[in-house]
Amino acid sequence: MPQGDYIELHRKRHGYRLDHFERKRKKEARVVHERSAFAKRVLGIKGKMFAKKRYAEKALMKKTIAMHEESSSRRKVDDKVHDGAIPAYLLDRDTTTRAKVLSNTIKQKRKEKAGKWDVPLPKVRPVAEVEMFRVIRSGKRKCEHLNVVPLLIVEMVSSTAKQWKRMVTKVTFVGPGFTRKPPKYERFIRPTGLRFTKAHVTHPELKCTFNLEIIGIKKNPNGPMYTSLGVVTKGTIIEVNVSELGLVTPAGKVVWGKYAQVTNNPENDGCINAVLLV
Amino acid sequence: MEVMDVEREVSNNNSVMCLLTDPEGEPLGAPLYLPQNVGPPQLQEIVNKLLNNVEKMPYAFYISDQELVVQLSSYLQKNKVSVEKVLRIVYQPQALFRIRPVNRCSATIAGHTEAVLSVSFSPDGRHLASGSGDTTVRLWDLGTQTPMFTCSGHKNWVLCISWSPDGQHLVSGSKAGEILSWDPQTGKQSGSPFLGHKKWITGISWEPVHLQAPCRRFVSSSKDGDARVWDISLRKCVICLSGHTLAVTCVKWGGDGMIYTGSQDCTIKVWETTQGKLIRELKGHGHWVNSLALSTEYVLRTGAFDHTRKAYSSPAEMKEAALARYNKMKGNASERLVSGSDDFTMFLWEPASSKHPKARLTGHQQLVNHVYFSPDGQWLASASFDKSVKLWNGITGKFIASFRGHVGPVYQISWSADSRLLLSGSKDSTLKVWDIRTHKLKQDLPGHADEVFSVDWSPDGEKVASGGKDRVLKLWMN
Questions:
Q1: H/E run at residue B78
Q2: CB spacing of B454 vs A100 below 8 angstroms
Q3: Which tens digits make up the pLDDT trace of B42-95?
Q4: B236-294 pLDDT, tens per residue?
């Protein structure tokens, strides 16, 4: 039989010791003193951990006492005057707070003029050209005629295919009026599988994300060539259509385009995540 | 007769048989033969003659709810109406005076240290008061467009303010459930606070001056579910109207002496004012009732004052003049009540006759926040969180037009005194003036830096006041 069960068995047969309950009560009363002696005596990390736990218990006890005391004194009205006054018809409704965009449009215009950008990701990892493009071979391969040529004149001509075409391996944005150049002349191929029209744009203050259409690519930090190609990598500044957010300038005009910076690697995730520049 | 018949057959497109009827459907005189080159000005002359009007009154003409602006011939051609049947033309009297639309902000007055929650012009149009989240009520001087008095005394945000229809008292209700009354001439509190409500005040409405002059009683509604009638001379609560199970969102004192309360428990209760008994309960809405509007509301609010700007010497004179105005406005029909609700619809009721709604007004895609009858009672406008303002026929409840232009929820609306222009203030910080005749945007008033919480058009039509979250009060003029 397991060790503890002998005690239980004895208790079942003969009942408790005559002084059992009194001893138990007194031992439990002594626990408080033992705990405080331990708290005073203990050293090092053990002491720190114990002290932290003890403080948490003390704070909890104080809170429960305060809570119990509160219910005994009733107050009719909440006396504090809160900020963010709203009229009576909005009082029972929970509305999302709207960040003020208005003064920032002026700041943004000034910064645009100066060419400086205060962006969330100021530095990005540079993308090398070999990573960005893949070489596409075109043209007839000369080695196909090898069996025709007599064995004496074996010109091991390596497949000198033309290698001037490049395929973009990153996500791109092409505008709605985009048509490909004739295949003979197009140097850069942008595959349709990697073309996106929408981006998931997060408003930094409201902390909510909208699925907005991209209007265009403003700047790719890797170079002006990528900007003109429409390549979207991490850190690219894109312009998105924000008409559904309902923003208005001080002059009363409705804002419908704003800049956002891409925050993920779209070619890895399959979507473009960006943060709105306000 | 034969000659006339021949004439009709021969020159088929020269004259048409018309019957002029008033808005309630009663015909004015016998059907007339009118030549087809007749337009609204000629029709106006005919109506003036038939009604024996001493002064020429302007009228607007409607054929099957569409306004007639061109000559009869072009109308008949466009709509291919047969000339064999009698053509019914409804004439509607229009206001004698014409209000010019406001188009510029004449003053931006700072003063409040927190958002402005409500603005209201006094019934004679001479004083302007605003209540704000900084617990003060401020009175503004309209002549110099500067602050005049600051009335402090409230313990929490001032949610509603209301002028008595004789212009002698101003009362304001706060989030702490107390109501204070102020003297508009000195800006000081005129007595002790009215305590009794346990939660915040959602609306205040005065007893019409044609029922009792000088004005003594007003009713206030609160979140705690009851409405209380207070007497300003006795300075205490005389009747407590309890019965609603949830917050009472709006209260209106009708011209026939009944009090209407709309509540979050989806019902509207009609009370009588001598003993505070419940007369009727109007059920039908599926969600909170947000706003109530009465067809005679504008006349009740302005009391005896109208565009002639006459000053009255004694309360009895004021009572008579107000009664005359009220009767003229009401006509033969009973008062109509419209309620706007969170269930995206509105109901048109005639509470004096039945407890079933007369019409259900659907069309909004978001909750209806504010409904307001035009001063002449012909139109009804509703502002909704779906960024549109809709115009309805005030008598039948038929939908007329939708005004789109705002990019944020529309919070409050206000009519000009001649019922030709409608003003709306929205969360997108702009105010817009809409023309009722053309159903189009008349004027866009940007300028506020943040949400616009409250708008009011002065009863003399000259100024518009608006206040919002940006803490300034803007006055707009022509």
A1: helix B72-79
A2: no
A3: 888 888 888 887 777 788 888 777 777 777 777 777 777 777 777 788 887 787
A4: 999 999 999 999 999 999 988 899 999 999 999 999 999 989 999 999 999 999 999 99
Q: Chain B residues with CB inside 8 Å of A248's CB?
A: 407-408, 428-430, 446
Compute the C-alpha angle B138/B144/B150, nearest 5°: 15
Instruction: Pick B133's closest partner by Cβ from A85, A89, A246.
Output: A85
pLDDT at A76: 54
pTM of the model: 0.68
Which pLDDT score is estimated for B18? 81
- The sign of the torsion formed by the CA atoms of A165, A169, A174, A179 equals positive
B422: closest CA of chain A, how far (Å):
19
Selecting from A84, A89, A250 the residue whose C-beta is nearest the C-beta of B369 gives A89
pLDDT value of residue A80:
79
Under an 8 A CB cutoff, do A92 and B247 touch? yes
CA dihedral over B352, B356, B359, B362, signed as positive or negative:
positive
As a whole number of angstroms, the distance between CA B83 and CA B81 comes to 6
Contact B197, B228 (CB under 8 A): yes
Searching chain B, which residue's CA lies closest to the CA of residue A78? B176
How far is the CA of B228 from the CAs of A187, B198, B222, B224, in angstroms? 81, 11, 9, 11
User: Residue B372 above 80 pLDDT?
Assistant: yes
Of A77, A85, A246, the CB nearest to B428: A246
Residue B340 to residues B220, B320, B424, Cα–Cα distance (Å): 19, 33, 16
Whether the pLDDT of residue B460 is over 90: the answer is no
Find the range with the poorest average confidence among A227-241, B7-21, B140-154, B364-378: B7-21
Interchain contact, A252 vs B446, CB within 8 Å: yes
Q: What is the pLDDT of residue B230?
A: 94
In angstroms, rounded to a whole number, what is the distance separating the alpha carbons of residues A59 and A77? 28
pLDDT of residue A112: 65
**Which pair of structure tokens corresponds to residue A226?**
């990528």
Question: What secondary structure does DSSP assign to chain A, as a single string?
Answer: --HHHHHHHHHHHH---TTHHHHHHHHHHHHHHHHHHHHHH--HHHHHHHHHHHHHHHHHHHHHHHHHHHHHS--SS--PPPSS---GGGTTS--PPPPP-HHHHHHHHHHHHHT----S----PPPPHHHHEEEEEES--GGGGTTTS-TTS--------EEEEEEE-SEE---TT--PPPTTT--EE--GGGB--EEEEE-TTT--EEEEEEEEEEE-TT-HHHHHHTEE-TT-EEEEE-GGG-EE-TTSPEE-EEEEEE-S-HHHHSS-EEEE--
Helices A44-72 and A20-41, packing angle to 10 deg: 120
Which amino acid type is present at position A62?
A: K
Q: Which pLDDT value is given to residue B245? A: 93
Task: Output the CA torsion B231→B235→B240→B245 (10° steps).
Answer: 110
A136: closest CA among A63, A91, A190?
Answer: A190
pLDDT-above-90 percentage for chain B: 53
Strand order in the sheet with B236-242: B201-206, B217-222, B226-231, B236-242
Max intra-chain CA distance, chain A? 117
Please answer whether residues B203 and B210 qualify as being in contact, where contact means their C-beta atoms are separated by less than 8 angstroms.
no
State chain B's mean pLDDT as an integer. Answer: 87
pLDDT computed for residue A104 by the predictor: 57
Nearest residue of chain A to residue B453 (CA atoms): A87
Ranges of chain A whose pLDDT falls below 50: 97-102, 154-155, 157
Contacts of A87 in chain B (CB under 8 A): 117-118, 159, 411, 453-454
Peptide bond into A191 cis (omega under 30): no
